[in-house]
């Protein structure tokens, strides 16, 4: 009989443990800087007030201040070399259209641009999941030619 009582106590303890675990709430993902949320992606249209290709304060990467009909918005574009390599120049006064999402940045919000469009030129700055597109330097054509022998 003592084995049955022990087994009964173990079964009861397991039952209460399972009930207690089921009542715990699963942690919700916290909003963190740089988190790109596809569910909150939208379009932004406005006039460039200021453009900084390489700011010295985080978040690093090209940033601009955009005047929209709803107010002034800070926009993060990513690596300025990607803009330059694709011949996309941004100057104050330019009208831009962007697709992206807001992310928390200190006490304000920052718009993470996924696609930026100026006139008829559009450039993808982030993947559809929000990861920055990295700049890859073109290979020098003189360096790619074989000089003979085994490489």
Helix and strand element order: HEEEHEEEH
Percent of sequence in beta strands:
25-35%
Question: Unreliable runs, pLDDT <50, ≥5 residues?
Answer: 17-33
Number of distinct helices? 3
Average pLDDT for all residues: 77
- Helix share bin: 10-25%
Quaternary structure classification:
single chain
> What's the total number of strands?
6
**Structural class given helices, strands, pairing?**
alpha+beta
* Distance separating the two termini: 80 Å
CATH architecture of the domain at 40-91 and 102-124: Beta Barrel
List the strand order in the largest sheet. Answer: 1-2-3-5-4
Radius of gyration: 26 Å
Largest sheet: 5 strands, mixed, barrel
Output the CATH class name of the domain at 40-91 and 102-124: Mainly Beta
Please state the overall shape, judged from the principal axes of the Cα atoms. elongated
Task: Summarize the model shown.
With 151 residues, the chain is of the alpha+beta class. It has a domain at 40-91 and 102-124: OB fold (Dihydrolipoamide Acetyltransferase, E2P), CATH 2.40.50. The chain is built from 3 helices and 6 strands, in the order αβββαβββα.
């Amino acid at each position: 009989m003592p084995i049955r009582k022990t087994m009964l106590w173990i079964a009861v303890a397991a039952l209460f443990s399972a009930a207690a675990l089921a009542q715990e709430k699963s942690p919700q993902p916290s909003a963190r800087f740089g988190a790109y949320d596809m569910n909150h992606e939208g379009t932004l249209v406005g006039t460039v007030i200021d453009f900084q290709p390489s700011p010295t304060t985080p978040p690093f990467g090209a940033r601009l201040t955009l005047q929209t009909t709803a107010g002034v918005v800070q926009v993060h574009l990513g690596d300025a070399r990607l803009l330059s390599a694709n011949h996309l120049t941004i100057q104050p006064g330019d009208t831009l259209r962007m697709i992206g999402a807001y992310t928390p940045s200190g006490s304000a919000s920052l718009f993470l641009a996924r696609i930026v469009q100026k006139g008829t030129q559009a450039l993808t700055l982030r993947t559809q999941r929000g990861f920055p597109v990295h700049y890859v330097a073109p290979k020098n054509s003189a360096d790619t030619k074989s000089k003979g022998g085994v490489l």
